[in-house]
Structure formats: C-alpha cells, structure tokens
C-alpha cells in the first residue's frame, strides 16, 4: 500500500486526539506531506474504526492518487499550509479551551513561555466557513513564522516537520489557551490597577532558546 507507514500514523494521531479529548466525534483532521503527496484523514469517519487503508493519498493540487473515500473537508486548508510553509505535517482539533478562546481574542499574548514553542504570540485566524478557500487563506496568514494558530469560532491547528512533532504541540497549545482563559476570568476580581502579566519579546526569545535545547541529547 502506498505510504502505508504515514497512513498508519495518521490513524494513530486521530485516535489519540479523540482519546485525549481534543476532538468531538469525527471533528478535526490530520495530514502529512511526503514529497509531492499528501496523506490526509477521510471525511466524517469514526476514528475508532479507521484503518490505514481508509486514509487517502492526494497530490498537492488535491487530486486523489490512492483514496477510496472523500478526504477531510479541510483538505484546502492543509494544502494552503503546505504551499505557504515548509511544514511536513498538520493537525487540526476542536479542543474546548482553544475553541472557547478563539471566540473572544484576536491573539494570545505571551502569558506563558510555552508560546515560544510556536514562535511567539499565537494569532487567531478570522472566521470563515469550514472547508472554504477563504479559511485556508486566513489560517495560512496566521501561521506566518508560527507553528500554531487558532481559528476563530472553530478550533486550533499545529504544524511540524513530522506528524509526531505537530501532534506533540497540540496539548501545549491547549494548555496555553486554558491558562489564558483562567487569567482572563480572574482579571475582573483583581485589585485595582492589577493586570495580567505578559512576557516581553526578549523574554519570550530567551525562553524559546532554552526550549530548543531542552531535554536529552541523542
């Protein structure tokens, strides 16, 4: 089967997103780019029942190469990300905190240094109907120099050089959104003159440098 390993990884990520509560039902979608081909989850399929053969392979124009089912309705979005970035994979979810926050802010300020993992403050792409070219354009713009973005009144998206890397960022993005929501909820009850603390660009860059060297070297 063409790109069997990549298709199997798409299935695993979809099922993990559901297990972690990052998607509801069949919402969300996952893809990986391999050269001039894109492996993407099918539209409206129960993640628990999905198998590698159900995951389609398309070219960079969206034409099917090896696909027995319709691709995710967000295929144009994934293709736009691949056309405008060097990403090797895209994950999109509808997790509660990121979706809620996308309805009230235009960007997430640097309230937590984890934002450095995404290149700085996280932008919120303006709303457009799912599956449309306009949504694809909006999200691609929000992802400039970033590896994650929110989609207004919709959800969140992360990218990475590999599918495992893109997926690993999803819980961090949801955490950042949860922290911001709690800070915003607490702000009205704070002492007069108090405000939510935000890290400067310099501190965010310092944190980013530290994050890049974090962990065990191999």
Can you tell me about this structure?
This protein has 218 residues and is of the alpha+beta class. The protein has one domain (4-212): Class II aldolase/adducin N-terminal domain (L-fuculose-1-phosphate Aldolase, 3-Layer(aba) Sandwich). Helix content is 36%, strand content 17%. It is built from 6 helices and 9 strands, in the order αββββαβαββαββαα. The protein has a 9-stranded mixed beta sheet, sandwiched between helices. A hairpin with a 4-residue loop joins strand 3 (56-59) and strand 4 (64-66). Helix 2 packs parallel to helix 4. It is elongated and about 60 Å long.
Task: Give the name of the CATH architecture.
Answer: 3-Layer(aba) Sandwich
Largest sheet: 9 strands, mixed
Give the integer mean of the pLDDT values: 92
Instruction: Classify the secondary structure makeup into a structural class.
Output: alpha+beta
Find the CATH topology.
L-fuculose-1-phosphate Aldolase
Query: What is the string of helix and strand elements?
Result: HEEEEHEHEEHEEHH
Q: CATH-wise, what's the superfamily?
A: Class II aldolase/adducin N-terminal domain
Question: How many structural domains does the protein architecture include?
Answer: 1
Which shape, going by the Cα principal axes? elongated
Strand content: 15-25%
């Amino acid at each position: 089967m063409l790109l069997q390993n990549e298709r199997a990884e798409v299935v695993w990520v979809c099922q993990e997103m559901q297990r972690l509560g990052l998607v509801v039902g069949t919402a969300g979608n996952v893809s990986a780019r391999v050269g001039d081909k894109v492996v993407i989850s099918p539209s409206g399929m129960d993640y628990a029942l999905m198998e590698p053969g159900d995951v389609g392979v398309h070219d960079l124009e969206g034409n099917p190469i090896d696909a027995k089912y319709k691709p995710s309705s967000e295929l144009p979005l994934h293709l736009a990300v691949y056309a405008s970035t060097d990403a090797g994979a895209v994950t999109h979810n509808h997790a509660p905190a990121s979706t809620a926050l996308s309805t009230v802010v235009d960007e997430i300020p640097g309230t937590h240094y984890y934002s450095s993992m995404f290149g700085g403050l996280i932008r919120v792409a303006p709303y457009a109907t799912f599956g449309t070219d306009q949504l694809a354009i909006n999200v691609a713009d929000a992802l400039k120099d970033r590896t994650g973005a929110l989609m207004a009144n919709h959800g969140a998206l992360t990218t990475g050089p590999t599918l495992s890397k893109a997926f690993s960022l999803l819980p961090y993005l949801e955490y950042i959104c949860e922290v911001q929501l709690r800070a915003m909820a607490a702000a009205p009850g704070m002492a007069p003159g108090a405000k939510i603390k935000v890290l400067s660009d310099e501190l965010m860059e310092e944190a980013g440098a530290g994050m890049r060297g974090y962990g065990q070297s191999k």
